[in-house]
Amino acid sequence: MERRLAANTIDSYARDLQRLAAFAEERGRPVLALTREDLEALVRAVISDGRSPRTAARLVAGVRGFFRYLVAEGSLAASPADEVRASRPWPSLPRLLAPDEVERLLEQPDVGTPAGLRDKALLEVLYATGLRVSELVGLRAQDLHLGAGYLTCVGKGSKQRIVPIGDEAARWLRRYVTESRPVLTKRRQPPTVFVNARGGPMTRVGFWKLLKGHGRAAGLRRDISPHMLRHSFATHLLERGADLRAIQVMLGHADLSTTQIYTHVLESRMRAIYDRYHPRA
Fold this sequence. Notes:
Layout: H1 7-26, H2 36-48, H3 53-72, H4 99-106, H5 114-129, H6 133-137, E1 144-145, E2 150-154, E3 160-164, H7 167-185, H8 204-217, H9 226-239, H10 244-251, H11 256-259, H12 261-277
């Protein structure tokens, strides 16, 4: 919390520390008595359980931070975790949808119903802006500046940013706000723009479920996720000549190196096209 991390990140670290506590209990000793060898055994156990290298790396980061805190508070003289290492996670290319798959997905909601019109607005806004799902469901009325063509949102680290929105997505969002939202909310006054069937705030899990349903109806892969639309947004912009730094700002990435993963997507696509069409490939 002092580092102003996102709530989801804090939850992940909390789960890792619960794993550490359970491991110490299995070994029959207090957490403060764990040694470097114990912690290395914990990391090996996590990897043996089939967890990804990225998960193991996050566990190590959380455990290091915890023991450094204990040293700073005077509970320990030295941290046993400083030399603990996890295998370096290989960077994975983001999974995304092709433009025609996005079109099929956007066509699925039945805009003749209040819930369908809401779903249409949700999907259009997500693909038009590349927001994180928590940013999408957290939008408030004061964040909408549709006349000026942009939204404001609060992202990781409680940082606010401005995100442009296209005319098509803005049109569906206006329709939802004026036609559908009053029907869904009835007399309730939820703080967020997007609401569920009972008129309460839309949740991340709620949006995930409706996205899965529309994905199945569109004949898309089973593992479709909100982040796939975010990745699709960024990649499709880059494919059409958008500046990488502008995409970084729109996505809310603190470091350009995070955004550069999308250049690898283009490189892999170019290689596939070359192998398919070059006569001597």
